[in-house]
Amino acid sequence: MRQIFLDTETTGLSAENGDRIIEIGCVELVSRKLTGNNKHFYLNPGRDSHEDALKVHGISNEFLRDKPKFGAVADELIDYLQGAEIIIHNAQFDVGFLNKELELVGKGGFRQFVASITDTLVMAKEMYPGKRNSLDALCDRLGVDNSGRTLHGALLDAELLADVYINLTRGQDALLIEASTTENTAGDIVQVDLSGFALPVLAANEKEIAAHEELLKQLDKSSGGNTVWRKAA
Fold first, then answer.
1. N or C, where is the chain less crowded by C-beta within 10 Å?
2. What's the pLDDT tens digit per position in 71-104?
3. Mean pLDDT, the chain, whole residue set
4. Is the pLDDT of residue 184 over 80?
5. Is residue 192 part of a domain?
6. What's the pLDDT tens digit per position in 40-58?
7. What SS3 class is residue 94?
8. What pTM was computed for the model?
9. Cβ pair 88, 60 in contact under 8 A
10. 201 is a domain residue
11. Does 152 participate in catalysis according to the annotation?
12. Pick the catalytic residue: 40, 89, 152, 212?
């Protein structure tokens, strides 16, 4: 299935109170590989951005004056997103704005055009409870280079989110490959005989043994002499 990483920039924080989308960025991933088939729109919102929003995205009201309205790109956007899994960081915010924009041009809700919506903020909170899970924080934690992100931009943020998602879900490929190689087309489990493999045993050297003993001593000290191996001995 196609996966589309989507981000928006807006004039403010409340679609219900009249704020509008000014930028949409989409990045396509197929089989966990970027395809380059991306979408990017700047939009004329028909109103000025709030001062706080301008500090976040830096997109001036004057720059947007000659850009198309959302209605002019709605069909193109829907065709592009049709049937894909949409991945968004803090999906509730972006989907709320997209629903309002679609409603204003007489279209149905956003979810009816896509296969599913995945929220990476929800994923991150489950994986890193109690930690900061903003996009910048995840980039730092997962080693994703966000040095070019001095201001928020929908396309750049969508690209960063794709990198973050791949890191958050790393290991999935291995699991899928394992599953595909242990079943035949009839669905029966294939038994693999490992008796012919000689598995090497690598013994620890003196330095490694000493380091291990020191670690055990520190653990025993921290637990007040209540470690399992001491009791068993």
1. C
2. 999 999 999 999 999 999 999 999 999 999 999 9
3. 87
4. no
5. no
6. 999 999 999 999 999 999 9
7. helix
8. 0.72
9. no
10. no
11. yes
12. 152
Q: Residue 23 domain-assigned? A: yes
Structurally, the chain folds into a number of domains equal to 1
Q: CA-CA distance, 138 to 159, in Å (whole number)? A: 13
DSSP state of 189: B
> Residue 77 and residue 114: Cα distance in Å, rounded?
11
Find, among 61, 24, 67, the residue nearest to 44 by Cα.
Answer: 67
Per-residue H/E/C for 118-148: EEHHHHHHHHCCCCCCCHHHHHHHHCCCCCC
Q: Which one has a higher pLDDT value, 194 or 162?
A: 162
Q: Provide the domain limits for residue 23.
A: 3-174
Task: Report the C-alpha gap between 6 and 149 in whole angstroms.
Answer: 16
Give the 3-state secondary structure of the chain.
CCEEEEEEEECCCCCCCCCCEEEEEEEEEECCEECCCCEEEECCCCCCCCHHHHHHHCCCHHHHCCCCCHHHHHHHHHHHHCCCEEEECCHHHHHHHHHHHHHHCCCCCHHHHCCEEEEHHHHHHHHCCCCCCCHHHHHHHHCCCCCCCCCCCHHHHHHHHHHHHHHHCCCHHHHHHHHHHCECCCCCECCCCCCCCCCCCCCCCHHHHHHHHHHHHHHHHHCCCCCHHHHHC
DSSP state of 150: S
In a domain, 51, yes or no: yes
